[in-house]
Design brief:
The complex is a heterodimer of chains A (about 210) and B (about 160).
Chain A: E1 2-5, E2 11-13, H1 14-17, E3 40-42, H2 66-82, H3 86-101, H4 111-123, H5 125-135, H6 139-171, E4 175-178, E5 184-186, E6 204-207
Helix pairs in contact in A: 2-3, 4-6, 5-6
Chain B: E1 3-7, H1 17-21, H2 44-48, E2 54-58, H3 69-95, H4 99-122, H5 131-142, H6 151-160
Antiparallel strand pairs in B: 1-2
Helix pairs in contact in B: 3-4, 5-6
Classes of the chains: A mainly alpha (about 210), B mainly alpha (about 160).
The complex binds iron/sulfur cluster (SF4) (2 copies).
Chain lengths: ~210, ~160
């Protein structure tokens, strides 16, 4: 039987490896991207799609919150940066900063609340976005949704590992973020290319 | 289509071939940014550059692929979800005294922002000069959300992109 990593697509082939997947230690992580064992699904099983409720689609109708507006504007700033237009980039940054300074603060007590949030988002907004994008044949939106979804799964996996192993795990580990897609990698040796968006490893930035 | 030259300062090795070939002196500037007002779009600098540091881009970018309302709604909800995660992770990073957790929360903060930005690109805000971005700026100019809203900056962007 084969198992595939939901994040980077690494395939664990029991036949080749000689060790049944179920016998791998719980601490075993994906050789491709470092995700937890729980991120693997058996290959033949067609993944059960969550049924998407139409109700939550209305959520998108709301005006964006200040923090989301800040993201829209920091994105436009990056767009200017790519066009080598530093002046307009700085102006868009001002707008982004304005909205950030008007954003609300998080009230979560601990990282478990963040984990709950991530799990809830994975069940609702991600499948809804996939549905809307594929029904409208929007491949760009499908791409962005896919990258964000994989990155989200990794965050879920890292939070779950932190809950089990705590500070000891992170004490001597380096934490990297792909500056293109936001994929988080923990470990000393970066993969040659980002497991999600495939940019070369020098695009990763160290978090200190 | 009329083109303009832009130079990637990170790739530029200052070999200076572009200075020799440019018929208008547009490549020779004190801040190394090609002077668009002088560039006539001949493309000679891009062809001569040994480092692939110069790109020829349209003087006026094409109108972007139209985004379906339904897609924008779904992506906006997702951007909102990432914003909520950014907010949560950022506050946890500030609050915690655990060193490892703080780094992890910082990473999630950065990551959530990058995902949110990428999703915003696909929700119609790909091109800063595009009509959705411009419509947003104009709506804010006409109805600033608060007194300290950067109105001047907003007007300057609208002005800079006029005719693009
Ligand atoms: S030719 Fe290319 S590398 Fe040389 S100065 Fe011009 S842009 Fe830079
Ligand atoms: S495209 Fe032609 S005019 Fe414009 S900067 Fe390059 S060489 Fe000069």
């Amino acid at each position: 039987m084969k198992y595939v990593c939901a994040i980077c697509g690494y395939v664990y082939d029991e036949e080749k490896e000689g060790v049944p997947f179920s016998e791998l230690a719980e601490s075993w992580t994906c050789p491709g991207c470092g995700a937890e064992k729980a991120m693997f699904d058996p290959v033949q099983e067609t993944a059960e799609k969550e049924t998407v409720s139409a109700a939550a689609a209305d959520d998108g109708l709301r005006a964006l919150s200040p923090r989301a507006m800040s993201m829209v504007f920091s994105n436009l700033a990056r767009g200017c940066q790519k066009q080598y237009r530093p002046e307009e980039e700085a102006l868009f940054r001002k707008l982004s900063d304005y909205y950030l300074s008007h954003s609300s603060e998080g009230a979560a007590e601990d990282e478990k609340e963040l984990a709950a949030l991530v799990s809830a988002h994975l069940k609702t907004f991600f499948p809804q976005a996939e549905k809307a994008a594929s029904e409208n044949g929007d491949r760009g939106a499908l791409r962005a949704r896919l990258w964000a979804n994989k990155t989200e799964l990794m965050i879920q996996s890292l939070l779950s590992r932190y809950e089990k192993e705590g500070e000891a795990w992170l004490e001597n580990s380096r934490i990297w973020v792909c500056s293109v897609c936001g994929f988080i990698f923990i470990g000393d040796r970066l993969p040659a290319v980002c497991p999600v968006c495939k940019v070369p490893d020098w695009k990763f930035e160290l978090v200190d | 289509m009329e083109k303009k030259a832009v130079r990637n300062l990170r790739l530029c090795t200052k070999d200076c071939l572009c200075l020799y070939v440019c018929p208008t002196g547009a490549t020779d500037t004190e801040n190394s940014i090609i002077d668009v007002s002088r560039c006539v779009g001949c493309g000679d600098c891009a062809a001569a550059c040994p480092s692939g540091a110069i790109s020829m881009v349209p003087a006026v970018y094409p109108e972007q692929q139209e985004k379906k309302e339904e897609v924008c709604f779904a992506l906006n909800a997702l951007i909102e979800a990432k914003a909520e995660e950014e907010m949560t992770a950022a506050s946890l990073a500030r609050k915690t005294e655990k060193v490892g957790l703080r780094r992890l929360m910082k990473a999630v903060t950065v990551s959530a922002r990058l995902s949110g930005e990428d999703l915003a690109r696909e929700a119609g805000y790909m091109l800063p000069q595009g009509s959705p971005a411009l419509a947003l700026l104009k709506a804010l100019r006409d109805n600033p959300p608060s007194d300290d809203f950067p109105l001047n900056e907003t007007n300057r962007i609208i002005e800079a992109f006029k005719g693009e």
